[in-house]
Amino acid sequence: MDEYAGRVLAGRYRLPRPPADEFELVETRAFDTYSGQEVLVRQLLLPEVVHAEVVGDEAAPQAARHGVGDSAERALEAARAAAAVPDHPALVQVFDVLVEDGSLWVVSELVPARPIASLLADRLLTPYRAAEVAADLLGGLRALHAHGWAHRNITARTVLVCEDGRAMLDGLAFGAAQEALCGYDPVPREVLAASGGEQHGGWGGPDSALALERARQARITVVGPVTERWAPEQAGLVHQNWQLAPPVGPAADLWALGALLFRCVQGHPPFPEESAAELVGLVCAEPPALAEDCGPLRPVVESLLRQDPAERPEPEELRGWLRSLVRTAPEPDIGSRMVRVPAGPGDPHKLPVVRRKGELVRLRRRRPAADATAATPAHGRHARSRGQRPGPADATGETVEVRRRTGQLSQSTGRAPHRMGLLLVGLVLLLLAALVLYAVVFMPKGAGGVSSRSLPAQVSGGAAAGQAAPASHDAPTPTDRATQQTPSLGSDFTVRADPAGFSVAVHNGWTRSAGPNGETAFSSGGDMMQLVIVVGRDSAADYGTDPLAYQDREPELAPFRSSMWSSAAGLKRLDAGGAAAAEGEFTWRDPDSGNQVYGCNLAIARDGKYDIVLLTGPDDQRSLISDYFGKAVRTFRANG
């Protein structure tokens, strides 16, 4: 108690004595005399209000009696509403909110953690570690957004990193009090309606352009130059049509999360923070600094820092990106930062304490070690490790005593477990060797992603391996189209002989068109499916002889390579009747419509030239595209 010798708040929270160079303790530990636990206390100075005594006016004396004004009352109500948000593992709990001596005090749990600003002072975070922190924070934000709340106070000081590496979010009630003090209304409408706040205390925020501009100027003074708290919809100028401005909601928290990730990896904020007024102007007028050092996290940061809230990713989409990034994180270097684990069992009294909502409870006092030892008899094995003799009722002690009497105790008894362990290790190694031998002898031979299956021989032109394709004397003319129906393809497909020198199965009703680069396209129209065929346009001398590497430069896959959000799967080499071929599945986002596109591609190296079969369509029709692509590959034949 000597440490907490300062003032006492609300008759229960003892504050430490402030240092000589500090007038007030804005954020400090405190001791709760009711529960005997330490808590964290934050102070928010309230504006001084002078109330005039008016005859017949009961509101002014009542406000003067409490020592606060209307704005302070709103700040108190907003902080208490934020403290009533249901618990979440990623959110710090708030125990009490009170007003005393012209200040608003927020009492919350004292988490054994460090603010991320303190960690950044030592070293920056890697993109993968920053993605882990963002994934933890996103869980708490999604819980807040589900209850209609927006946090509005995500900074490097309110994000805490615990001893076990988890990230937690603090400052919800404190930020809500600041917003209300400036003149905004951070409490969601549904929360006010559920608690009856619209009838007593719900003020609704600014109701005119002048009031909104006053609140904005007050927020510049109260919040200051903190980039994370100035999303474009919060920093924008107030115009005549101020009611059409984007509302401050969950998208503002995602913008703040992007600014925090930028700071954690780059080491500086995306906008200069010399002046609050200058920062507010730059956020709305200039793009953020380039996230050059963010590496694989750069697309996520840039998408979160978009000015238009509608263009920022949804929380579910952001969660998928972060999880993918964390899964691809490289393994740490063993030995670079090793921590020696103490030998023997750990201290059972250092287990984490379960966090609970509400009043703090006093921890039960542990019994003395002597009483605990006397109450609980030690097991024989542990008694021997401490140099004690097991009791007569101990099973191990009885066994030892019997063996001593019969003279059967030998040194080989302690070696049995060791031999059993060696036997188990030998059996495991023998099983692994048998599996490797089976894979080498019986499984199909293939390396470097070469598939064991083969394409039909006619895909490579119908010639045998090492032979040139025979000349076709009855080659079809442009007006001579084959109309034969293949039973295995179904009645919806027809094998068409094209003037470009190939034949392929195309769905009935698809229209043909010739592209500017020598490609032939068959389009479905309504569902935007398209089959693209290219015969002998690109030479192996320009693109190389490896069809798998050719797909990285294939002109038809240029939209895939230029898309910021794209993925490839199923890349493998094939055998097309003696000719080398490669196949793959590609997904990308169409820059014009924003829709996901799925494509199946086949590249065949034939006589120093490349043939291409590409079928694209909507990502939600993958199974149908794969079926159509399989029919096209089975029936494709180049006449040249």
From TrEMBL:
The UniProt record lists the keyword Membrane: yes
GO molecular function, one term: kinase activity
Limits of the Protein kinase domain: 1-322
Domain of life according to the entry: Bacteria
Alphabetized Pfam families for the sequence: PK_Tyr_Ser-Thr
PROSITE patterns the UniProt entry points to: PROTEIN_KINASE_DOM
SUPFAM superfamilies, sorted: Protein kinase-like (PK-like)
InterPro entries for this protein: Kinase-like_dom_sf (IPR011009), PAK3-like (IPR051931), Prot_kinase_dom (IPR000719), Ser-Thr/Tyr_kinase_cat_dom (IPR001245)
Biased amino acid composition, Low complexity: 456-472
Transmembrane segments: 420-443
SMART domains, A to Z: S_TKc
Comp. bias regions, Polar residues: 480-491
Family: Belongs to the protein kinase superfamily. STE Ser/Thr protein kinase family. STE20 subfamily.
Name by which UniProt lists this protein: Protein kinase
Protein's organism: Streptantibioticus rubrisoli
Taxonomic placement: Bacteria, Bacillati, Actinomycetota, Actinomycetes, Kitasatosporales
